[in-house]
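Appendix B, Record 12. Input sequence as logged:
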Amino acid sequence: MRPDTCLWRERPFNEEDPARRELRGPDDRLIDGRNDRRDHGQFRHVPELLRNGIIAYAKEVNQPITVEIADDDVNKQTSQIENFIAAKVDAIIVNAVDTSATPKMTKLAADAGIPLVYVNRQPTDVDQLGPKAAFVASNEEDSGTLETKEVCKLLGGKGDILVMVGDLANQAAVQRTKDIHNVIATPECAGMKILDEQTAVWDPVKAQDLMTNWISAGMKPAAIVANNDNMAIGAIQAMKAAGWDMKTIVVGGVDATQEALAAMKAGDLDVTVFQNAAGQGHGALDAAMKLAKGEKVDRKVYIPFELVTPANMDQYTKKN
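Logged structural output:
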């Protein structure tokens, strides 16, 4: 029997989506269940890339998968896990809606003896995962650190900054923001000062509104440090609408999305960090299949973050 994996998302596939038709069928035994925080307007978001990475690898290894949808509802996601367990799937992959809710999910799978792989979003119980569970992602201690160190370098170690924070229910937002504080506490960057720090929950529209409010309040930072590219682009749009010269301000984000790279090429974005979401999806499916076969995998599997600047951006134009 082929190993099963489960993936569920916020929003449903279009029923005419070729990926759905190809990867679902009466004999599907691999269920891939993920929460997919989809793109805002034209902006692609990491879970979409995760999905694509899992789908591509599943097709490559001829592994059927089934997708369920959480609609950003943690109770629904937990219920889906219970249904997967009742269906006796061989493994489950979770992109958690709320990382603080993972201990219950972990216990459900462990009690049923079903392998569980968390992907991208670090579960709060990551250090308590048992032998049949794993976490596949990139180490968030590196993401905000790479971003902020490069911003510090561009500022010469001093200057006022504004910080845009992601969804605080997401461990990545918490860690990336902590990374920023840790970097500006170092001697090399001690001249940097945070003027304000607020959440825009990963959303470019909310980031644009937040930046507009900051501008209206008379704030004039030397840099904007955002937890992701979507928010960085929203901030850029607000600054350009206000007539600011983007050459006079440093802007950083994380993810190296195609939209971000286009902004970098235009001279608006100065720093981003490549998160290999497709690689995470590949790694999650690989870990699930190994665990389902009784093989051992590391509890934490990290896909490295990579700094992206105008000097090397051409290497990343087709990676996301």
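The chain has two domains: 6-138+277-303, 141-274.
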